[in-house]
Design a protein that fits this description.
Structural class: mainly alpha
Strand content: under 5%
Helix content: 55-70%
Strand order of the largest sheet: 2-1-3-5-4
Number of strands: 5
Length: 517
């Protein structure tokens, strides 16, 4: 199949996924906490300037004096939002989503081109692209405003350029390697999740595929590591600039590293081998491969039967993509192993599952590639076999899309529309109403801060409300149980507040109060 036709197919598939997402751009999907904080940090860059913020993201709605930046993660994604805000001066989410979707398309494109260069097979690369685009954890980050969409684009771009460097000669090899070094630096300024991943990938690839010195030397690998280290140092220097000393910045890093390895404060479970295995390894693999253990076991059994039925030439050929699959799997779990407490703490937020996205994409592609090229071409009933393979592939793609948060189908569209009702209620608190903070009996507060343009604090009971030095000007009471602490809080609010707005949302039913004058 012609390369241009394949790219058009993948572009059409991407559009089919991106358009429904564009129609509902609100902060109700993916990692909406990080997306809201990213938008708020962009507002703060716009309001205070990059120099005054020390290029660090400030997630809370800030007064004239900046406080509590987020120093534990590289800020390039937040800086991009600040640039978009300065260029567009827009209060709409659309420009920010559009930039993220742009990078997500090239994430898909470079993943396809990487597999094509590696395998020299248009069909295998096309299948990898289809299973990549239709996976719920690609869709999860397709319009992400946090580092997800940008970091994953850089990952795919780096893998593609790495293969290009191996295959290039002379001056072109040096130019491509210089680009690869720059991409490593950019990735280190975007995220820390892929720093070990990418160096580990290149080391394993060189060793397993026996890449000679002329293809990619150990000196070049060391130079790439220096790019990642340089990015880390730049981020550290920004922190030291803000804290006023290198020792304070070092203590800040030390504290967060220890938390992510052994004792994340927001982890829902104690860190044990059993809980880590169940809620990180087993859960993430079952999520990325879409099906439960029983179906996955059947799929492995059928893959074994398929492999046994392949001729010796094809069985030898299949070892190459399978070795790549092993490398990607090792790289995909490296974060879970190096930072187990952090991985366990985010078992319900799911943004770390995408580290295994290349594994699922290539795994499904290998199975269907050899099913199409070997099984259906031998024996009788070729048309029936082809139709059966196509049907199974369609089921996998359909399952991926329907398991995502994409607003397709009556239920997901209704869910997206319902969130808009709550958003409209929140917008009632926007200026020019009098200033004041917002309290809410809900802990995922950043998107509420973004829509209201106000500082937001979580308060879950009357006792906590009474302990505050002064009552917040606004209170959003969301109805969950209607009894116990919630009922007591409601009675307390009625004494001190007047009803301002009623939320008609089913997901976020409740009332917004304003403090009595």
């Amino acid at each position: 199949m012609n390369n241009k036709i394949i790219i058009l197919i993948l572009a059409a598939l991407f559009l089919a996924i991106a358009i429904p997402r564009i129609l509902f751009p609100d902060l109700d999907h993916g990692d909406e906490w990080a997306d809201a904080e990213n938008l708020i940090s962009g507002e703060n860059y716009y309001k205070f300037g990059f120099l005054k913020t020390r290029f660090l993201p400030f997630f809370g709605i800030q007064d004239e004096t900046l406080s509590t930046p987020y120093t534990h993660y590289p800020p390039l994604a937040n800086i991009i939002s600040g640039i978009v805000k300065k260029v567009t001066r827009s209060n709409s989410i659309y420009p920010f989503r559009a930039v993220a979707i742009f990078f997500s398309f090239f994430n898909l494109l470079f993943w396809y081109l990487f597999i094509k260069r590696f395998s020299q097979s248009n069909l295998l690369a096309l299948l990898c692209g289809i299973f990549y685009a239709s996976n719920p954890f690609f869709i999860y980050g397709i319009d992400a405003l946090s580092q997800i969409s940008y970091a994953d684009f850089l990952r795919s771009f780096i893998l593609f350029i790495f293969i290009a460097v191996i295959q290039a000669q002379g001056k072109r090899k040096s130019i491509l390697f210089a680009l690869l070094w720059i991409l490593f630096l950019a990735e280190s300024l975007m995220t820390i999740e892929y720093l070990v991943y990418l160096v580990l990938f290149i080391v394993l690839f060189k060793c397993i595929f026996k890449i000679p010195k002329e293809g990619f030397s150990w000196k070049r690998i060391f130079l790439l590591f220096s790019a990642s280290f340089a990015g880390f140092v730049l981020h550290f220097l920004k922190n030291a600039w803000y804290f006023g000393s290198a020792s304070a910045a070092l203590q800040d890093f030390k504290r967060i590293v220890l938390q992510r390895i052994a004792s994340s404060t927001d982890s829902p479970f104690p860190l044990t081998l059993a809980s880590w295995w169940q809620h990180v390894i087993a859960k993430n693999f079952s999520l990325i491969f879409l099906y439960n253990y029983f179906i996955l076991s059947l799929a492995l059994f059928f893959f074994y039967l398929l492999y046994q039925g392949l001729p010796p030439r094809t069985r030898k050929e299949i070892k190459q993509p399978f070795r790549l699959l092993v490398i990607l799997t090792i790289c995909g779990v490296n974060w879970y192993i190096l930072f187990p407490s952090h991985a366990l703490a985010h078992t319900y937020i799911l943004f770390l599952v995408r580290h295994l996205l290349p594994v699922a994409s290539l795994g499904f592609a290998i199975f269907f590639y050899y099913a199409f090229t070997e099984v259906i071409k031998n024996g009788r009933y070729k048309i029936l076999r082809s139709a059966l393979c196509a049907l199974c592939m369609g089921i996998v793609v359909f399952t991926g899309v329907t398991q995502s948060e994409l607003p397709v189908g009556a239920e997901n569209v209704a869910r997206a529309k319902d969130f808009i009702k709550f958003k409209q209620s929140l917008l009632q608190l926007k200026e020019p109403r009098p200033k004041g903070i917002v309290a809410v009996n809900y802990w995922r507060t950043p998107f509420i801060s973004f829509y209201t343009g106000r500082k937001t604090i979580p308060i879950f009971d009357a006792a906590s409300l009474k302990k505050l030095p002064s009552l917040p000007r606004y209170f959003i009471l969301l109805y969950r149980t209607g009894s116990g602490a919630e009922a007591e809080l409601y009675e307390t609010l009625k004494q001190h507040y007047n009803l301002l707005v009623t939320s008609e949302s089913r997901r976020f039913p409740g009332v917004i109060f304003v403090l009595k004058e």
